[in-house]
Amino acid sequence: DGRSVIRASALSGRVASLDGQIHLKMRCITNLSEGVVIDADLDGRSLNGGGSLAITGLRSQVLPALGLIGHSDDVLQAAMDLDVDITTFGLERFQARFNARSSRIRAGRAKRRVTAEDISISGRAEWNRRKVDIALLDLQSASPAMKWSGSFSWTKDRPMAHPPIQISLKGANLEIPSIRDSLLKLFGGQPVVERVLDIVREGKVPAVTLEVSAPDWQELKGMKHLRAACYLTGGRIKVPNDLFDLKHVSGHVTITGGRLAAHGISARQGNAVASQGELTMGLYDGSRVFSLDTLIDADVGELPGLLINLVRNQEILSHLQRLP
């Protein structure tokens, strides 16, 4: 419509050229930030060079202004300080290192809104006309307490044997109760997320790895390509249909091919103790598979309560019910 999306004021700067080298320094205030400082040196012919960009008080409204998200103030509310160091190789290839800080970020609408506080992000990126690589070196927040690192890669016209979109994330020292509500609010429309969080209710995760690869952005949204692995301690796993409500669960948990599997698990239900357990459960692979293989240390009188929901044979059920 002819209107500028980003407007600058209080503009000051200097451009100098000496022996083919161009030096640019500029300061300004914009409608979407409290201040911008640009400092760059470029070769006048090749455009090889580098520079820095420092933005204070960058508001989240810059995203809809650039067409990256919808024009709605309640989708994302944040103000952050951003520092970027950029190296250019002509107009063909770019490298950058970035750091960002924000005291508070709010995302989502109404009842699905989540808040994170004291957030810091650092990483690096490289891109050209055919490929984008982003390394998330460190992402931390104080509330909810979490720490992540990871990578994102997109390659144009890549063979289907190697999906063009690759995402990998690693988390550390996560507590499920503190992030469960946030995940449900952000991804509540995803059956996969809802089902996993309905099964895994509590616990601490010292380390978790998430990997997703997809041929296009539409396939990425369905999360059917998700692969996850973590170690769970002090957990609670509630098996659907009230088959089991396992507490004090420890063990390795993976999600791949649409199935959840837990290996080497130990757990308690009432006074019964399970160990060396192997659990397999269908999530979104179209199956209703459920398999549990474990050693159980329990009094004879507790066995009917543990087995009654698993056994379908009426004769066996009647014998179980007669146990003292």
Essential attributes:
324 residues; mainly beta; 16-stranded antiparallel beta sheet; 16 strands; 13% helix; elongated
Structural write-up:
This protein is mostly beta strands and about 325 residues long. Helices cover about 15% and strands about 60% of the residues. It has helices at about 60-65, 175-185, 190-200, 215-220, 305, 315-320; strands at about 10-20, 20-30, 35-45, 50-60, 75-90, 95-105, 115-130, 130-145, 145-155, 165-175, 200-215, 225-240, 245-255, 260-270, 270-280, 290-295. Strands 1-2-3-4-5-6-7-8-9-10-11-12-13-14-15-16 form a 16-stranded antiparallel β-sheet. The relative contact order is 0.06. The model has no long low-confidence stretch (mean pLDDT about 80).
Rg, Å, rounded:
26 Å
- Give the number of DSSP strands: 16
Order of strands in the sheet with most strands = 1-2-3-4-5-6-7-8-9-10-11-12-13-14-15-16
Task: Give the SSE string.
Answer: EEEEHEEEEEEHHEHEEEEEHH
Distance between the termini: 81 Å
Fraction of residues in helix: 10-25%
User: Count of DSSP helices?
Assistant: 6
- What is the average of the pLDDT values? 82
Strand content: over 45%
The geometry reads as: elongated
Structural class: mainly beta
Report the major sheet.
16 strands, antiparallel
Q: Runs with pLDDT <50, length 5+?
A: none
